[in-house]
Amino acid sequence: MRRKNHHDGPKNKRDMETESPIEGSSSEEWEAEQFEQLVGRHLKQWDDSVTPEIPSIQSLEQLAGDQRDRLRGRLWRDLLLFWVVSGMILSGLVLLVQRDLKLFIIVQVVVLMAACLFVVSPVVRREGRGKWTN
Amino acid sequence: MDELKQIPVWLLVLLLIALISQSTWLFIDARKHSRFPWFWGLWGLIQVPMPLILYWLVVRVDRAQYEKLRNLWKP
């Protein structure tokens, strides 16, 4: 009785399928089939055993509402701070105009030039739709 | 001071409203689209309308879309 020798070639089609890719089929398809045969059933069983908690629509709405309120509060806080600083700057500008109009014009020109330089600098050039922002 | 008295009061009030409105809008919009909302807001408080124009050109205009459209119209 002749023992089965591993050096022998595959005896049937099933052996051919499990041992090496069939000629003409892509290696990716063969690997996918192999993966499915070896691991697929166990993965499916594991997947079925896991039942994640699906949050209710009310909890999601609550989450979105809380975030919206937080953002609105932050906006109002920033706006109030901005208006306080704006009041101080505007008061300073009005006093400057009353004291010396020429100095006021010089300040305006300097601010315009500095702002334009800042805008064309590489730091700000990266801004724009589709680019990195806050 | 004399030059200031020549300017009508209503024009000064209008200018003040324009500056505050511009700076507030720039600050709020720049918080969503820019890394420098304070810069745009404060610049908008001091001058008008250059900050608005440059903000639109630098931050809001979609340059990639503009380049795409420009290439479409090329012969």
Automatic annotation (TrEMBL), chain A:
Keyword Transmembrane helix: yes
Stretches for region Disordered: 1-29
Pfam families: DUF5345 (PF17280)
Transmembrane segments: 79-97, 103-124
Composition-biased stretches (Basic and acidic residues): 7-17
UniProt cross-references to InterPro entries, sorted A to Z: DUF5345
Keywords: Membrane, Transmembrane, Transmembrane helix
Protein name, per record: YxlC family protein
Species name: Paenibacillus mendelii
Source species taxonomy: Bacteria, Bacillati, Bacillota, Bacilli, Bacillales
UniProtKB/TrEMBL annotation, chain B:
Protein name: Transcriptional regulator
Membrane-spanning parts: 7-28, 40-59
Keywords: Membrane, Transmembrane, Transmembrane helix
Species name: Paenibacillus mendelii
Source superkingdom: Bacteria
